[in-house]
Design brief:
The protein is globular. The protein contains 7 helices and 6 strands. The longest helix has 22 residues, at 74-95. Helices cover 43% and strands 10% of the residues. It has a single domain (21-120, 128-207), classed as Jann2411-like fold, CATH 1.10.3300. With 208 residues, the chain is mainly α. The structure holds zinc ion (ZN). Residues 166, 168, 171, 173, 186-188, 192 line the site of zinc ion (ZN). The site of zinc ion has 8 residues, from loops.
């Protein structure tokens, strides 16, 4: 049986009331999946993180938050800011250039939120239970986990070399190339890869 990735849905100019139907998860890691919530960077540049609730929902779907929770409105701007810093780092990695120091600093600032914050709490029968502080499940901590993923991706040379931008002319998705030989060109073979293959076929047929 062949598994086919669902085609990336067409995104309206202004997703409403939520960008969730247009998120896609082909980035290969949370840092790039977050970058890809801004769609069609090559053309219309549509933001699919529309509301603070979108940020919470995205973090749940990315398995970084256990359940939806109220997200302070300031966190939407913060998430977008982190996203663009990660993208600046990703684009520099693809170009083999130095990263913008401001972007590096911004990602670094998030890392203090990424760590585990253990707690020792009284449990049933008074027995102590090792757990996590409630605040540890905050949206900001979850975004800190995204920043940590970005820091690993950008700060470890062998990982940095695998950051890619989809080779399709009509896609701007960023993805992490896990192929053994590191030669992946498209975010998804099922969508962009097949479109490119069909285009080459038509070009050959036209030339013949
Ligand atoms: Zn693509």
């Amino acid at each position: 049986m062949v598994t086919v990735t669902a085609p990336i849905p067409e995104v309206p100019d202004q997703p409403s009331p939520s960008g969730a139907p247009y998120w896609y998860w082909l980035g290969g890691r949370p840092a790039l999946d977050l970058v890809n919530t801004r769609r069609e960077r090559w053309r219309r540049d549509v933001d699919c993180l529309v509301t603070p609730a979108d940020v919470g929902e995205w973090l749940v779907r990315a398995a970084l938050l256990p359940a939806p929770m109220r997200v302070p409105s300031a966190v939407l701007a913060e998430a977008r800011e982190l996203r663009e810093a990660i993208d600046a780092g990703a684009r520099a990695a693809v170009a083999g250039e130095a990263a913008d120091p401001a972007a590096v600093t911004l990602i670094d600032d998030w890392l203090v939120l990424a760590g585990s914050r253990p707690a020792l709490l009284p449990g049933p029968g008074g027995l102590p239970v090792l757990g996590e502080r409630a605040a540890a499940d905050s949206p900001r901590r979850a975004l800190g986990m995204v920043a940590l993923d970005a820091a690993r991706m950008l700060g470890i040379p062998a990982e940095r070399e695998r950051v890619r931008i989809c080779g399709s002319e009509t896609c701007s998705a960023r993805f992490y190339d896990r192929s053994p030989a590191a030669v992946r060109r498209w975010c998804s073979m099922a969508s962009c890869g097949n479109v490119a293959k069909a285009r080459r076929h038509r070009a050959r047929a036209g030339a013949a």
